[in-house]
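Fig. S4 source data, part A: sequence.
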Amino acid sequence: MAADGEGGAGPTALVSKEAPGGGQLVDSSTVGRPVGDTSSSAVFVSDLPKNFHGGDEALHFALGELFGQYGKIKKIELYMEEGILETQNFKGEALVVFHKTKHTGSHDKGDPVYESCTDMDGRWRLLGKRGWRMRCEPAEWQKEGYDVKAKPKV
């Protein structure tokens, strides 16, 4: 068990060079994601179920119920794509816009975007009648001439 020679304590690094199989692997996509600029007062939600029980209206209601505990919601927009004939298919993404408060953009208690992103990003939450893991991140408003490769100031 003491592959690194410290007397049973185990390796201190995630993966040691001497024992590559003795380390601990961590999925970095779900742990410790920093929350960016929350001044937009909107949350972009992805990895939502595409075939939600009850349809799009039920998913809209469930998202409102889930995100409503963090602040007053201005609107919820579900993103659709063109389907067969004249139908619209849900893409699995949504935008939840909160009303602005005095804490918006502050990363303090009372900032609805910061609280919802830190509490729900990559964690199991009850969405309707089933548990679901979704990705939440602060939305950035797209402007004319916005450079996608430029990093935002945090």
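Fig. S4 source data, part B ends here. The first helix runs from residue 55 to 67.
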